[in-house]
Amino acid sequence: MTDKLLLTFNAGSSSVKIGIFEVSGSKPERIGKALVDFSDRPLMLHLTEGPAKFDLPLKAERDDDLAKLLDEVFRELGTHFALDAVIAAGHRIVHGGELFDGPVWLTDETIEQVHSLTDLAPLHQPQALRLIRAVKHLRPQLFQTGSFDTTFHVTQSDLVRRLAIPRALHDRGIKRYGFHGISYRYVARALAEQAPEIAQGKVVIAHLGSGASLCAINEGQSRDTSMGFSTLDGIPMGTRPGWLDPGVLLHLLGPLGKTVDEVEDMLYHQSGLLGVSGLSADTRELLKDRREEARQAIELFTFRIAGEICRLASTLGGLDALVFTAGIGEHQPEIRAEVAERLLWLGAELDDNANRQNALRISTPASRISIWVVPTDEEQMIAEECMSLR
């Protein structure tokens, strides 16, 4: 048993990831992780403790306050870990708006400030708030912190963040924020540890998962990113379209007579890889599928990624390195190879063997752009930021 534990909560739109960390030195060490996937029927707690894995059925139903569900999750976790030793909980929060430029202690006041930003992230912000309030209800004295996906990008210039809309709207907060910042912060640091000379240069990081974006960094700081005002922007994702001509929205809402709710559902849940293929939002399934629609979805995905890399290189004034991370970026060499092939004109050359093995460096010695695979760990970053505030 340990003297101190720390929990992290990573709330997605359809799942909750929980990290269990031991706090015994200067850095939290992960000792377990858990997942509740809201698509499971009945709900299950998927728990990993060291090499052991458990699938534990839950009696609770998903509801708006999550307190009953979390109470049952805590009871199950308590049979594997000494939850009485938990001293803090850190949460991933998607949007920090203009209010936050780093992690914060979640007091009544800061929770209310997080709530005030719900309209900027209607899919993700409410879920994080439900978790924060559920933990507060079950453990009212527990120290809780919030880590934001937007704060890594506060180093971007006003020019990069500005949209070509009336100034009054910009002044009301309608601007480009960028997301996946917790992941980018971790990967930028990991790259600096593995290849410090590369990390100080002009680097594009491709965070490719069911949600996907790219970030241009220089000297470890964010200079530009593919996502803008919302998590819908940028490259195509599993079920989100990425960049979309706003005239399409006017057409849907006008001549086609769609409601705002219908358009929102289409943008968040019916587009992207799923929309193009009509088959799946999962690149693994699409890569195996021989139908033209599946191939078209993959080609559009890699085409847009390569194009966005070039746009970000323009912001940086050059490109020294490309880094792949997250589920697709770390584990799918076929996707990386197709992106790199579209960048041959930039001098990007993959080492096929290193790429197939998901090695750290996957470019050839002759490649003008070094190409890397660096695993991300958002929960580790959340845990460390939580401890930095205690």
Topology:
Layout: E1 5-11, E2 15-22, E3 29-37, E4 44-49, E5 52-57, H1 67-78, E6 86-93, E7 104-105, H2 108-115, H3 125-138, E8 143-148, H4 158-161, H5 167-171, H6 181-194, H7 196-199, E9 202-208, E10 212-218, E11 221-225, H8 246-253, H9 260-270, H10 272-277, H11 283-288, H12 292-316, E12 321-325, H13 326-331, H14 333-341, H15 352-356, E13 370-373, H16 378-388
Parallel strand pairs: 1-6, 6-8, 9-12, 12-13
Antiparallel strand pairs: 1-2, 2-3, 3-4, 4-5, 7-8, 9-10, 10-11
Helix pairs in contact: 1-3, 6-16, 12-14
Provide an overview of this structure:
There is one protein chain. The protein is α/β, with parallel strands linked by helices and 390 residues long. It folds into 2 domains: 5-148, Nucleotidyltransferase, domain 5 (2-Layer Sandwich), CATH 3.30.420.40; 196-373, Nucleotidyltransferase, domain 5 (2-Layer Sandwich), CATH 3.30.420.40. The protein is built from 16 helices and 13 strands. The strands form 2 sheets. An 8-stranded mixed sheet has the order 5-4-3-2-1-6-8-7, with helices on both faces. It has a 5-stranded mixed sheet with strand order 11-10-9-12-13, with helices on both faces. Strand 3 and strand 4 (44-49) form a beta hairpin. Helix 1 packs across helix 3, helix 6 crosses helix 16 and helix 12 (292-316) crosses helix 14. 43% of the residues are buried. The model has no long low-confidence stretch (mean pLDDT 94).
